[in-house]
Amino acid sequence: MPFSARLARALASLPSLPSLLPRTSPPAAPSAPRPAASRPLAPLPTARVLHLMLPLLLLSAVLLGTGMPAAQAQPLVASAASAASAAPAISYADAVASLKQLQAEQDRIKQQTSTATSNTQIDTADTATEALSGDVDKLIDALKPQRAQIQAQLDVLGPPPAAGAPPETPAVARQRSDLDARRDQFDAVLKQAVAQKEDLANLDQQYAKLRRGLLRNQLALRSGSLLGPSFWAPFHSPQQEDIDRLHKFFGQIAAQFSFAWEDGRRLGTVLLLGLAIAIWSGGRRLLEYGVAWFCLNRLPATRLRRSALALSTALATVISTGIAVQLLYLAVTRGEALTPALDDFAAKFSELAMTCALIAGLGRALLCTRHPSWRLPAIADPVALAMRRFPTILAALLLVSGTLEQLNRIADTSLQVTIFGRGLVALVVALTIGATLLRANRARAELAAAGEQPEARSTLAGLIHAGVSLAVIASLAALLIGYITVARFITYELVWFEIVLCSFYMLTQITRDAFASLFSTQYRSGNTIKHLFGLDDSHLEQASTLLSGVGVAVLVLLAALSLLTGGFGTTPSDLFDSLLTMLGGTKLRSLNIVPDRIVNAVLALAVGFWLLRSVRRWLDNEFLPTLGMDPGMRASLVTLFSNLGYVLLVLMTLSLLGVQWSSLAWIVSALSVGIGFGLQEIVKNFVSGLILLTERPVKVGDMVSISGVEGDIRRINVRATEIQLSDRSTVIVPNSQLISQNLRNVTMGNSTQGVATLMLTFPLNTDPEQVRDLLLNAYQAHPAILEKPAPSVTFSQLTPDGITLSVTGYVSSPRITATTKSDLLFEILKQLRAASITLASPQMLMIQNAPEAGAAALPAVTGTKPAG
Asked: Are 503 and 62 in contact (CB under 8 A)?
């Protein structure tokens, strides 16, 4: 429900502006209660309390704030489509008659809607429209089988014979003609029914426009300041017409109490009233004591105890109040049916009582002044003591003022009396909340003056405090300048905001504490889960964090839904209907997404992900090793399988969601533009990764060298490849570089041998044969050098600088080439020194300036530096 609709709903009971004019004739007074002898027995309204308690206990306290659902509203008109009920077959004549009745009903709804002057009348018309739409659906469902049966008979007869073919019998031709005529008749009726269904859907938009128009008129209504005499006129000089209406309604209440106090019922009434008072006062305490004993003796000694105690305190208050209200209802009615006016009043009073009980319960649970160590929020004791009475005071004032407001609504008092009641509600709520804020601020100031540190508050808490203060000031200002309806709306929304906020905080704490205790290995539950599923401690911690995060996210969505679609007096069923409307709305249906498909898609995604992981482990650990593949080939196949599996899983999920690709054309277009500009490198690397996995120029385990980086390939990912260097560090190389740049693969082709080559330069006066024998002996003596191919020495160069010899030997693996060359250099240098053989040194050319006259002449050019 949008914000404007919520505001219109808050103003639903406000009389229209034409009610300010003198009335030509007073409306009919509510009927008096029937005598006991004429009253039919009615079932006990136990379902009302169950309808409240089950959502209260099973869903969340965010959905609390209301009591028993209101009594079902009387429909605008009786359903006129009884002939179109869900029947297996319907004749054409009955279908036409039902369609005419449905059309007449629709015209009547339109006529009454055109004269609607209040939100109550619009809501009644909306309810009747929904019922009529259901009747049209039943008619369409009844017509479709008939039409399908006729089409099946035509399919059996087949098409008419072609020109030149043998003619068919007259009976067959006549039967085909009759079936064609019947099919056309049913098609016409179906077309009219579908058009009427679309027309009914358009009425919802008209209702929304009417509500917005009434909302603008009511908000713009300036009825007079709170300080003006006209506002207090209903109190000191009420109109006689309002007095008569209230007296008549009070007469119904008095008659009902007299009925319950008659002889034979008096004792039962007294017992039920006494039991209601006992449960409301003492039963709540007994329930709290029992829950406290359970929390202290059965729950682990963690924060879960405090959060569970807080939640149980709030629920105990609501449950005890609900039972007491139910007993009060039984004491007054004694199982007999009430008049419509009294039944409506009883239902609204029950909702109001449950809401006020929730306010008081949340205040007692969060402040917890009797046991400060159990207090859930970080509130200083003086601040909590200063605020402890205000939740109960607010609940009591709301109960009284809200009851007066319901009396005005049901008795249909004048606009002046209604505004007076709403002004009182806004005034008491604004003053109570404002006094609470002032007392809390004064307590914090006293703590600061005494040198004690008040509780630390976050920025969000400060913003909430400032927002509530501004709302109180705005409400009081609206009362002073005469906008009573605006002030009442602000105060009711403020109370609803506080209910949702406190419930959200409490449920968030208990969600986190519950999962933390459930998966903790310090307690039996965590150890049981650990041994049952074979999990590690880290996995338990991850599960606790994940589930608590999911739970908090769900609570955030529920809180947002409650704030956007709910309001003071919203029932749990109203919020649930809003959730279903949001999930099944036209925006999601435009993508062909509905709740059942969402559930199927989520389940399929979870099962598919688990199945993909299982098959991947089976391939990597069991199947592929039996084929004799090398580890690199196995890793490539497993990675390729995973990538294809994830793509198919995403496509399957979208298919189960019912997403139509035509609806995602704009997404594909945007993705194409993004790929063309910002994502081209990512796509380039992704495609290169697929090429590496299929063409396999390199594989996992290969020793490669690229751009000065040499190491072993450890993993080929979708975007990049991991190369481990000799110092155990890892270099991430984009896949596109492995495809586009020059790459040296040392181990390609299953090469298992490496080459250890050394090039040494000796002076010209060195005996090359002696050096050759020395080098060969050093290579042959090293254990890593293979005998075949045998080591060899090659005379590489002869230059003025000396002679260059190259010695080559093969080793078993390229990865030990560097180590082998190091060992050989140590040994060769040792043997060269023992044989007094030196390496060649480069020549140096020294140029000096000419000496001055008389100085000894120095050669301009020195000789070469001796080698060695």
From this structure: yes
| 805 vs 754, higher pLDDT | 805
Q: How far is CA 748 from CA 624, 713, 733, 744, in A?
A: 21, 12, 19, 9
Name the token pair of 227. Answer: 């300080």
AA identity, residue 225: S
Which of 387, 323, 391 has its CA nearest to residue 363? 391
Cα 29 to Cα 412, 418, 654, 719, distances in angstroms: 9, 18, 60, 79
Residue 36 sits at the vertex; the CA angle it makes with 35 and 42, to the nearest 5 degrees, is 120
pLDDT score at 807: 92
DSSP 661: G
pLDDT-based confidence at 570, cuts 50/70/90? Answer: low
Name the nearest CA neighbour of 393 among 360, 425, 349, 430.
Answer: 360
Instruction: Give the β-pairing of 730-734 and 744-745.
Output: unpaired
Task: Give mean pLDDT, residues 575-594.
Answer: 53
Q: Residue 642: what are its φ and ψ, rounded to 5°?
A: -65, -45
Instruction: Answer for the pair 567, 496: CB distance below 8 angstroms, yes or no.
Output: yes
Angstrom distance (rounded) from CA 286 to CA 273: 19
CA 184/CA 176 separation, integer angstroms = 12
In the predicted structure, residue 58 carries a pLDDT above the cut 80: no
Integer Cα distance of 48 and 64 in angstroms: 15
pLDDT at 582: 52
Question: Which of 69 and 519 is assigned the larger pLDDT?
Answer: 519
Burial of residue 329 (CB within 10 Å: 0-12, 13-18, 19+) is buried
Integer-rounded Cα Rg, in Å, for the chain is: 44
Between the two ends of the chain, the Cα-to-Cα distance in Å is: 97
d(CA 183, CA 147): 6
Spatial CA neighbour of 226 closest among 239, 235, 215: 235
The first and second tokens of residue 166, run together, are 């043998």
Alpha-carbon dihedral sign for residues 132, 575, 348, 23:
negative
Enter the tokens of residue 834: 């023992």
Per DSSP, 786 falls in state: -
Average pLDDT over residues 162-191: 83
Q: Give the C-alpha separation, 357 to 350, whole Å.
A: 10
Rounded distance between C-alpha atoms, residue 231 and residue 214, angstroms: 22
Separation CA 561–CA 551 (nearest Å): 15
Residue type, 138: K
Is residue 714 within 8 A of residue 703, CB to CB? The reply is no
Scanning 700-816, the segments in alpha helix (DSSP H) are: 735-740, 768-781
Phi, psi of 429, deg, nearest 5: -70, -45
**Averaged pLDDT score across all residues of the chain:** 77
